Amino acid sequence: MGPVEDDRPGKNEDASKPENEQPEKELKSRMVHLGFADFVTVVFRRGTLADHEIYVDGVNVTEAVRKVDDAGRVVKWASTVASPKELVVVNKADGSTEQTLRLNAGTASETVTPGNPEDQPDYILSRGRVSKFDYLLAPKDKEGRDRILPATTTFDLLQERKENSDAVTTQFYVKAVEINAEGKGVQKDNIVIKFNVENEEQKKWFEGIDSLKIMNNENWPVNQNPTFTKEVKDTKHGKNGIIQIPTGQDNMRSRGIYRVNIHSSYTNETVTVPFELVSSAKFSLKQRVETANPKAGERVQFNVEASGGESFGNDLKIDSMRVTLKKPSGKVVELKYIDDFFNFGDLFVLYGKSSNEEKTVNTDEVGVYTLTLKYSGYQTIKKKFEVYPGQSFLKEEDSETEWNAKKSARSKPVEIDAVSSATTGSVSGKKSSGSSGGGQYVDGRMVFDYDLLTNALILNEIEALNEDARAVVKRFFRHDGERLHL
Fold this sequence. Notes:
Layout: H1 11-14, E1 30-33, E2 38-43, E3 52-56, E4 59-60, E5 66-67, E6 74-78, E7 86-91, E8 97-102, E9 123-131, H2 132-136, E10 171-175, E11 177-179, E12 190-196, H3 200-207, E13 209-216, E14 221-223, E15 229-235, E16 238-246, E17 256-264, E18 269-279, E19 283-287, E20 300-306, E21 321-326, E22 332-335, E23 341-344, E24 347-350, E25 367-375, E26 381-387, H4 400-409, E27 422-426, E28 441-449, H5 450-461, H6 467-478, E29 481-485
Parallel strand pairs: 11-18
Antiparallel strand pairs: 1-2, 2-6, 3-4, 3-7, 5-6, 7-8, 9-28, 9-29, 10-12, 10-27, 12-16, 13-14, 13-17, 15-16, 17-18, 19-20, 20-24, 21-22, 21-25, 23-24, 25-26
């Protein structure tokens, strides 16, 4: 690839902004080589694809240009020649040239044709390692149905995608519910979901709610027809639509994160909201004698104890876990499972030195720390402990039992973002994909939508990935093997 001009969108407009207001990365148009295909990628300074015409080596290729993101701010053209030389972007309104970009060195020796996007493959069939999780369990959509094809192949870089019409109320609040061993509510009998109702259309949508579906955190339906009540009520916070779901119903008696899909006959649309059932068992951390006087850089070990003798953290799969450490200086850091801490049965270990690439020292300050644990389905645990001055003589080594347990844990899917004790938010249909994958693999085949995959890989090349595109890229590169274009 030859020299590329510095043609960053928005360069002049942002030059006078303070440093802390500058964008982290300014995208620019460029030639992108994906290995199996070449694309000319255009990032517009102003406007979108609808406002421009695109020329490659003097040929108008606009009719064959396709969006990479929803808005059409980033677009792609599948090159019909081996080495296109020049890109020109023209403003439709006044015919002015907005960008002129050298793509490759040398003189054009081939005649560019626009080409037809319909001639590109529909899918890429890849053969190689597939995680057992992906191989055995089909992913589900927000309504609990098998998700076979993508709903769209472009990505929402500006976070403007709307999943529902304006009639659907999507601002919600739901508090975690404490349950006993039988799955019944301890302090209250119902799961209460509150929606903001801002206008008459949203009121009609809420009043039209006719069915709920309870799903687990992977969107697998566990109760297709739960009992519930609904009402619209004026509160000090405005008009609320309130849904109450009694606890103790079929397949929702265990602690953990669930998702409820709510359908309204008014617009035939649904929204999906997470909620959490929390065990009533009270757990605490007790510092073990062997690490009772830790020095800076040393690990600290705890026993996880319950007043009623209940077990902690021994579930087949914990939906999510979040562990934070507040240091004596007041700095709060979020710890990573296995790198910074480990939990096996009633043993919890905070590592003095992380196993991450930076080899971060977690217990680097002398003074009082606060360790906070929030596992899905369990109440929050907080523990204060002190790190003392003096030289450390302990080695950061795992026992054989701990090493074997960590090896096994690496193959188990765990989400890092926990649903907090009171969940509030806006329904978007997105959820963390951290539970996908795992460390156990089988030989298998995976089908990638060609347009979706190339869009994600292009965003990766121009360093503009969002969460969804990053998930596609990770899965593609993790699944290396023979690939066929279909």
